[in-house]
Specification:
The protein has about 180 residues and is α+β, with helices and mostly antiparallel strands. It is built from 6 helices and 7 strands. Helix 1 runs antiparallel to helix 3. The radius of gyration is 21 Å and the shape is elongated.
């Protein structure tokens, strides 16, 4: 058993995310300048008046900003090779998602287990004092984490989608470190 587990972002995964974000930003740009005045189907609901067309243009402009930011974010992560997860004798350092809390010492962790949503398996961490961690994040992140909590998930959800490593394979190693630390405390 290793005393430290370091999971890095897969360069291939980051490049795929980077390409996807670029394509969606480009598609948003194309649609921003598209003439939808003769649109059929569901788009015709928005194109029957000027407000609907402005709303569509606004959505596409936001898409350009969102996916454009994503493009640069994922390209930067591909270049740097970010550590998404570090597990050692001190605790867990999570940078796997936008809602990641960073370093969490073992003394603040009550339980660790696997869960899944829509076919994606992830590691859930039960915190002893959730309020202490919620106070460290932005209001948007706080609301999102509380929404996850209402759906039955924990505040800390470690996703390994872009690493090429299975949570099922990694979990026994994490639990072993957790057990060793708890036994020595």
């Amino acid at each position: 058993m290793r005393d430290e587990i370091v999971i890095r972002q897969s360069t291939k995964g980051s490049i795929l995310y980077c390409i996807g974000a670029f394509l969606l930003a480009a598609l948003s740009l194309i649609f921003l300048f598209q003439d939808f005045s003769q649109a059929n189907g569901i788009l015709s609901l928005f194109t029957q008046n000027r407000i609907g067309i402005l709303l569509l243009r606004f959505v596409f402009a936001v898409g350009i900003l969102f996916f454009g930011y994503g493009f640069f974010y994922f390209c930067k992560r591909a270049k740097e090779g970010t550590n998404l997860l570090v597990v050692n004798q001190e605790g867990i350092t999570d940078h796997s998602s936008a809602l990641a809390l960073g370093f969490i010492p073992w003394r603040d962790i009550e339980k660790i287990y696997l869960d899944s949503m829509l076919g994606n398996t992830f590691i859930e961490v039960v915190l002893k004092d959730e309020e202490a961690y919620l106070s460290r994040v932005s209001e948007v992140a706080r609301r999102t984490m509380l929404a996850n909590k209402k759906m039955g998930y924990q505040l800390v959800n470690i996703t390994l989608n872009s690493t090429g490593i299975s949570p099922e394979e990694l979990m026994p190693q994490i639990q072993e470190i957790f057990r060793k630390v708890k036994a020595s405390a």
